Predict the structure.
Amino acid sequence: MNKSKNLFTLKEFNKLHNENNMSIYEIAESYETYPNKVRRLAQKLGAKIRNKSEAQKVALSTGRQKHPTEGTIREEEVKIKISEGVAKVWDEMDNKEKKRRSDLAKEQWENMSDVQKNDLHDKAYAGIRKASQHGSKLEVQVLQKLMEWGYKVEFHRQHIIGNEKMHIDVVIPKLSTAIEIDGPSHFKPIWGEDKLNKSLETDNRKDGLLLGAGFCIIRVLQKKDLTKKLARDILLELEGVLEKIDTKFPSSGKRKFVVGE
């Protein structure tokens, strides 16, 4: 390679760094010099040098560096601690910093192309549709916990009141209690405004029929993405409501509960 005073030309540097994905350190080694000298000369020549984030991506993709967490299986307790730690940082953050991060997220969104935005929307709605067809993650977690707590439950029950063909997510016969898991489609027009209004009418009618028949109704609200901490908080709140019902069945007019507000 060129061992002249200037070490390399702009064309040579671009070929090594941007085409062959060599790092500044590797280029310095090949010229038997030190990285800072390579960096200063590249900047002087007007070359594009990868920033730290870009350099890390290249190092991972080429195998020069191993991903710090890839392939790592964390225990559930560790995952919960991490989730709670993130939530605690956010809760203790002052309003100025929260606004700064919020503004940054908005700026990143605005800088996305229409294709990128549509792709994110498509993925989000696909996930919601899949959950609505096969039972959401929160439904599964609620069902598992109810069984752990010793309740005999019926999942996706119909005809709970006479010939009424309404669908109930979870029923606990012993407590005369119905549990409805309300995901994002109960609050946002995922399927359109008409579908949302119809869903709200169905929910209100269902509540009226259940309460009129002497049941307790618990609506579990999931208004945002289900994190491990959110799921744990919802389940703890649900457990408290069920213990209250089990201890003393509520009087008429006090049999509707909302969890996760």
Summary: The chain has a mean pLDDT of 78. The chain has ten helices and five strands. Residues 66 and 193 are 47 Å apart (CA to CA). The beta strands are 154-157, 168-172, 177-182, 216-221, 256-259.
